[in-house]
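ESCALATION

Customer reports they have been waiting on this structure for their group meeting. Please prioritize. Original submission:
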Amino acid sequence: MKLLVTGGAGFIGGNFVHYTVKNRPEHSITVLDALTYAGNKASLEPVMDKIAFVEGNICDAELLDKLVADTDVVVHFAAESHNDNSLRDPEPFMYTNYIGTYRVLEAVRKHGKRLHHISTDEVFGDLALDDPNKFTELTPYNPSSPYSASKASSDLIVRAWVRSFGIHATISNCSNNYGPYMHIEKFIPRQITNILSGIKPKVYGDGLNVRDWIHVNDHNDAVLTIIEKGKAGETYMIGANGEKNNNDVIATILELMGKPTDWYDRVNDRPGHDRRYAIDWTKLRTELSWKPKLGWEGGIKNMIDWYTENRDWWQAQKDAVEAAYAKRGQ
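Update from on-call: job pushed to the front of the queue and completed.
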């Protein structure tokens, strides 16, 4: 297959490119990325000789039209994705996540191509800490931030284009990814790079907020499974039974990095911080016979090792990221 990967220089998209080059070498891959602050071309250097790279924006309808015309499947990762940033300036999130997805939909509609749209569990809002339920494909949308609202909007127009125009599309909503090439503004890599820099980790509020963690390679293996086996028009939840609260996450990181498990500071909580996400991925398991391969501690150790060995990738960004957090008391 010819794959067009939007946002393929970002964290999850970049790892998808690496994973596909390694595990599906028969596929040809073109990456389209605008190289905003969260896109890093250096993340693709190890596979650059095996892919085609195009710097450009998914909102550029003319460019997108040319690229989609010469592909079989569009794998749509491109998105603004950091909640804190969406609270400060929502506009880029509306532009990229909603208008950009509209441009992608129009291009695949025109050329009759297959689309897989990557989304998030944050579109469902949050669950109470003592709620036994988990998000499913039928959970009503209830986004709580500009980021999650923009992603919910993008999901809904994909569904509308499937119903109204008959495009061949699937959607996946994933739990929180972690792994190599993750921007250091995010919770787990921020704490790892803090420790590597001699800085105490930082935990929002009471640290009881729960996320359902999945290693990025497991997520991307599920995406490939959906592309190859998924039914047009269907939505699939991607999870790994990885529910952990932030206190547990930081304790694991500190222990694996040889620090006392209480060596961290509590900082101001994020406004509107969702309490708990949890994914029920029964449909993916039963209908497509998929299951995750990596355990929690093994995945975190892999991530710690990667950031330890790849300081050149993140070091130049560290001071600016920490200065921005410090201004907000975080």
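Sent to customer with the following note: The radius of gyration is 19 Å.
Escalation resolved.
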